User: Fold this.
Amino acid sequence: MANRGTRKANAQRRAKSGTSKKWVADSRDREWFDDPAIIYDRLAARRVYYQTAVVGIPDEIQRIGRTLDRSNVLEIGPGHFPFSATLDSLKVTFLDISKGILQRNQEELRRLHEDPRFRNATTANVGFVHADARKGLPQELAGQHFSALVMNEVLTHVHPKERKAFLEEWARHTDSFMIVDRHPTPTAKAKKRPDFVSGHEIKDELERLGFRVTHFDIKLVQLKGKKTPGGRDWYFILTAKKQH
Ligand SMILES: C[S@@+](CC[C@H](N)C(=O)[O-])C[C@H]1O[C@@H](n2cnc3c(N)ncnc32)[C@H](O)[C@@H]1O
Assistant:
């Protein structure tokens, strides 16, 4: 009885949030790595608000984000929330593989100043680029160099085998990084999940690429949306600066 009750409660929760069992299954394999645009175009079209760690811990993430040089920020994979626009950056470019997400962000940005948390955000110079970040700097951004590259929960979509090359490529185009992602929960099963990103591995790789890690934290975050049964997930938050 208890199991049936739980199954029913889960189904009701999924129906309410617009997600499905199938989405969870897909997300772990084909679409998650090969074509994430499918997932996010679908979410944007359904207007599902995909609650994130960034939204769950805005004060801390914002405080850390404000330590970056924000004169020319590139944010890859903003999802449903144009985070870097809340950092009072002089210039921000949002790059995403999903057209739906970029459209949604343009709308969100218009509403941003109505949110009391971001009343003081002053970002004025904002651009949007539709591209697959795994292919490196797109033509529209040719010749640009960024003061900071922000990516929150994006490496999770880059296959573990491709993550080092991905970082190496983007390290050429930025003076600093801010990376937030889902760190494996401390269980053997979770450590094998390819969608989790080891904060330690990312830290080591950035150091190898000549960056000095300026902030590194791994923490259990209470999410407002419920990705996990307890509504909590492990995240790492990292900033790093290029050593000239
Ligand atoms: C899990 S969401 C994270 C959204 C947001 N940054 C946050 O923390 O809530 C992943 C985002 O990255 C984008 N994305 C995934 N793979 C990408 C790629 N190869 N190039 C550009 N954007 C990508 C997705 O479209 C989506 O907007």
The domain at 52-242 is CATH 3.40.50.150 (Rossmann fold). The chain has one domain: 52-242. The first strand starts at residue 73 and ends at 76.
